[in-house]
Design brief:
310 residues, alpha/beta, Rossmann fold, 5-stranded parallel sheet, 3-stranded mixed sheet, 14 helices
Length: 310
Amino acid sequence: MSKIEGQIKSHNTRRFIIQYNQDELDSVSPDNIRNWGEYVPIGQEMERLEARIKKGTTPYIIYGVKGTGKTLMIHRVAKKLGFALVEVICGDNVKERHLFGSPQIDLNGSYWNAGKVAVAFKALKMYKKVILFFDDITNLPPEIQLQLLSLCDKRKSIQIAGQTFHVEDDETLMVIATANPNVYAGVNPLTQALLSRFNGEVRPNPKAEDIKHILDWGDIPVDTVVDPLLTLTANSHDLVEQDDVEYELSPRDLDQFIEMYNDNSDNGILPEVNLISCIQTCILIKYCGDPTEYEAMRIRCEETFGVNIR
């Protein structure tokens, strides 16, 4: 047993009074889930997710490229179905204290400061239906992934601060995760033990007609702006596959382009100047970390849009 595992086991078997942040418990309420946009489905992905959440059994993972609305969809479905939503933003900096909590000492003695998983179980007592959402779960270090095994199988339980938390018959705890493809930098593949506990789906890259459908293009010219932009997006995917660049353009990037283009149009900027400005600020900025990649994309933008960019 490693030193860290020993510390975790010691803390989790010693009983503490768990202290929760009431503001956090209120914020995860179904009534307080904030909708920051309208999710436009491409196929039946929302129906599939709703069905799994209502069943509330096997954890569900959604693989897909960045910027395709995975997180937005989960928020929208949680709100629609009346589930509380406890969200964990995953990364290499996430430690066991963030998920499970940690012992603390104040003037009144020692207590356990609740982590996200403990908050989810407390919310379960309050709201009866909870989604515990791991956003970009493959960014979690493998040793943290392994601590989630009992939570993600039929036990639906976990030990925290000397207490065993489990799901009662009148409660529904649904674990949902999103993940980027393993080709992304910084991504740790799920351990086989954790992956075996998930069902899920791989969302394909959106096609040009899908992107046309899910984004609000307004009055942006189709021939000179929309179609070339969709072509460039498809080309960026090919360039990533060929290892020529690391960054693949996504619907999120295009949505930023649309917003910038419309803002510039409202300010009276001429169409060609507007187009070049948006290419520079919304597209080429994504490649500024590597001069070779930047130059490759600059040339590709000139060829695709038929403009000069310096």
